[in-house]
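Sanity check. The docking grid for dinuclear copper ion depends on where the pocket ends up, so I'm generating a full predicted complex first rather than guessing from homology. Inputs follow.
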Amino acid sequence: MADSTERLRLSRRMVLKGTGALAAASSAAALLAACGPLADDDDDDKASNGTGAIPASAQEVAEARGLTPEDITRAVKTYVPGGGRDEFVMFASGGHGGQVLVIGVPSMRLLKVIAVYAPEPWQGYGFSDEGRKILEEGGVDGKVLTWGDTHHPGLSETNGEYDGQFLFINDKANARMAVIDLRDFETKQIVKNPHIISNHGGAFVTPNTEYITDGSQYAAPWGWEYAHPSEYKEKFHGAMTFWKFDREQGRILPDASFSVELPPYWQDLADCGKGPSDGWMFSNSFNVEMAIGGEGNPPVEIGALQLEMDYMTVINWRKAEEVVAAGKYEMIKGMPLITIKTAVEEGLLFQIPEPKSPHGIDVTPDGQFIVVCGKLDPHVTIYSFEKIQAAIEAGDFEYDDWGVPILRFEDTVEAQVELGLGPLHTQFDDQGYAYTSLFLNSAVARWKIGTAGDPESWVMVEKIPVHYNVGHLSVCEGDTVSPKGKYLISLNKWAIDRFQPVGPLHPQNFQLIDITGEQMDLLYDAPIGIGEPHYAQTISADKLQPWSVYPEVGWDPVAQAPSPHATQPGEEGVVRDGNKVTVNMTSIRSHFKPDQIFLKQGDEVTLNITNIERAQDATHGFAFPGQEIQLSIEPGETVSVTFTADRAGVYPFYCTEFCSALHLEMMGYCFVEPS
Ligand code: K7E
Ligand code: CUA
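Predicted complex below; grid placement will be based on this.
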């Protein structure tokens, strides 16, 4: 009896406190059975309450809340107690919100929203001089944009494994690429692709992050040239850009980057080879029909469906790198471009037919196979890298109108697996399974990765419904050379009936699925009221080693170096040079120094503010009325902001972070004398 009482007490503690051991409890029924007798056992209840550990039985809570045994198991699988840590961290695109969402897995708690293409006042992103410069350098032909359409986050890799150092993400709408430094989870650089107008096949990294891919989406003339639709075949182009990344500087080096010209089909998703296929990259195309709508033509979506097959683009990027080094390129819009003609002559560009409107393309963890999803084909098609190499070797090609060699479908395909309607994207786990999203079925299919030479070994295993209209999936490290498995997150576009209604614009629905068992199990629906997710990557949390404060007082987070504008305590002051005024300010709980600033109308003012705090989380904000000034100054950080004091008046500025009991007093006055 003592044993069973002890067991019961333990069970209940586990339920209520969510200890790690509980996650191992495989059956909710067993749990509830274990808890059940407690409701009738007054003595035990009293004894437990006497310890202060267990206020009520889990059975009672479950009954009161109408929870089933399955609900309880699922809840305890995702519960992370306060102060606890998630095992994984997911980086998800925020779509046309232009940010990156950082979410703990399995709790699905939103940890951060990283501003990338859109200014964001809480982070002060896009408001300081340093931050505005990022948006300016990422401008489109000199025009600063304050939005972007983020699609595919890509974590930096070392030997095909996430290394937790950097994150890249593309802006599909404007063909841009951004670099986020994971030491402080902040955007450091945005580059505009000079060749293409919109992108999609990025950000996918080569196994050692030598390059970040950036494939064009909709064909167009090279950057900002004009052409009439009748000139489509001659003047519209596709391209695959390889952005060179320098880890030391933490920057993309546009001067060391290049593109490979592609036919004016629309390029779609891409992935880089690994292991045996390292050095190569693969990209889908669609609309090889080159439909662009207009009078007398079928609408685009019909015109683009006329042919049964589109093409996979196969590029030997190592060879392309050599070709650029040998000077065999054209300088187009200031960046090297290997023309189709050169790419074909050098044997670095091939195409392979793919079934109907392919979308996702994913290389298996061992690098041997390339999995392609055709949106309008119920199969996934698996290509063998070895067979592709053999077909290239054999040299028995057909050619398209641009002279690009086409390998034969039957020579390169390893297997096809029928999964269901609308297959889009595939991820992998550590047990030899692949997972493919089925957009039209609103389901995720689990299927077995087979072996080379045995087409029968590739089989569909099971399907689980998701809610609804799933796009990408993310399995923990599920696109690396060694997936961790465990969880799959289904990134659903529609939520319809899953949550409290909040008006016609519904939240996104991120669904967490347990993939450790015989059958996939839907654990949790996480509503996300931010931009639409496309891709996400999920990394083991212990690979992330961010700073908790900046390394020293006076740090410039954009340069990741000491700031030339840093102000140390005692150095505060105002310097006037004609109508140029520089204010060197410090902030510490609960004071800005100086706290009075005297200006003349028309002055050009630069505020350099250094947060001299060393305590974690002691961030100060800086809000200035009537100006586009809202800064976030994290411990150690120096930020600068320049503005024109164009209106006379008295301006109370204040700290926007509730930093201390005297936070409301953390303010100052700026007096602008009329001219
Ligand atoms: Cu939304 Cu990867 Cu841009 Cu599919 S893409 S969903
Ligand atoms: Cu500093 Cu509030």
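Relevant for the grid: The pocket of dinuclear copper ion (ligand 2) is lined by residues 590, 620, 655, 657-659, 663, 666 (CB under 6 Å).
Also worth noting: The chain has a mean pLDDT of 92.
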